[in-house]
Amino acid sequence: MKKIYSLLFVAVALLSATSCLKDLDTLPLNLTDPISETAYADENSYLMGLAYVNAYWAFVSQTDPGSADISAPDAGQSELLRQFLNLQEMSTDSFKCTWGDSYVADLCADSWTPTNTAVTIVYTRLLKGIALANEYLLQTEDDRLDARGHGALKETVHGYRAEARFHRALFFWALMDLYGNPPFPMPENIGGELPPQKSRAELFDWLETELTDLLAEGSDMPKKGEVSYPRPTQGSVAALLARMYLNAQVYTGTARWQDAKDMAAKVIGMGYKLHPSYEELFMQDNTENGAAADEFIFGIDYDKDHSQSWGGTTTYASAFFDKSRAIVAYLLGYDYGSTIVPEEWNGYHVSNEYVSYFNLKGISWNDPDAGYTYNNPDLEDFNGDGTVDDKDNEARAKQAEDLPGYTFGYDREASDKRAFFINQGIPAFDNSKTESGWRCWKFSGRYTDGHLNDQSFSSMDFPIFRLAEMYLIYAEADARLNGGKVSSSEAKGYIKALRDRAGVATPADDELTLDWLLAERARELMLEGQRRTDLIRYGYFTSASFPWPYKGGVPEGRVAIPAFRTIYPIIDADLNANTNLVQNPGY
Question: Model pTM greater than 0.85?
């Protein structure tokens, strides 16, 4: 049972009764309404308030998943995690979307502006998350505890404050990574002066100091095992530092490879485990099947009954599929009419270029028709009887059955266990054809025992940090320090552990290059919000030598993207409201 939800229910009610967070629709975005002292009259309120900050990546309002507390086209599209993933993945070769929304088309073509919906939502929500954390830190100062007669709670609340500082740091990291030079609101800016703007390098320095303090001996930040999942721990702090150090050259101009390697080693030494089944990491019960407990260092909690969201893992489980889910279900041993996803939104697609990273067996990339389970693009009346009904799904499934040894367009048993793809008959992605490209079911609607999700919403938690990433950070930092190839036995052992779990061979030592590691990150961390940052670190995001479909709006993608697009713009509304802000170059 996800204990966090009993706290979230009360936290949402508490905040709803004492403040109107929807007022953050008005600018400047650095401010939040003061939470009344009455909100903290009860001793339990301190943990309740922390729970709301903890869940802010997933919550869109204080009421229900259909009501957004910021201005957005619809509530589901206003969720922070959903749009954060769009900025990090849809702008790259990871996946594309054929929906008609203009902001989606601009992300796919790398042509966004300061008014792009996703750019605006992520910026707004990150600053609102910081505002919530700042308000919490303000309300939990020692003198305020004393004034309420809660002085005896100081030691406990100091731990809560450390967690709130981590959440604030994570929001600030995302601002630094995405927007480069954001505003820097602190508790003193609540109801006071407009916050200053920090450069990327300045914000990196502040974050390093803040996170190092949370890791220091005697810190109030809980250690692994001292608080229940999904609350952050010192492992979460160290994981964020490891990721920052890996990208330090981008953020500051100075490489920190040894620091990245050391910090990844620190996390690895804290007792996290590589869960034996990759597939179970992304099932509906990943908090109950042991996957999250083993491998997630920090995750976003979802529950189909108590923490409903049209973003997050509901989006990833639903947005890739239409009727093709019937053949997938059949090939997994379910009835033709069964589904492996909560809903079928038919928008997200993966290109041949990205799928080819997985070295699938039984498929020829030079001949799109070779080895496919079915290749008929007429997906409506599949069996040609003049009607569209369940018999069409059955016909697709039967066609797959007639090709023994091949499922989903490739031999799954012989292929990388991290590959969860199916093709509907038009393998090359075309943004004008909704049936083109590959569909991905990594984020599944299934439970470990085989039963299927019976609701629209997902219960699958999303990993912000997991142990596999720390293995890959360690290996890449080792390669960067050793002429571009993995050298240490520890790094090679981490790579072998990932490859063994995936059911594929570990390459020879001379093949463990930086480019191989980038491809391995594409396989291991697909759709986990890493791809844009990775490509920028490697210098490939803007390079014409690293094409992908519709890069820069060009169908074949052999085009350079202007360098200024390695960071997103400060949104116009905040520029107009805060005279301390200067727009990022190029916008």
Answer: yes
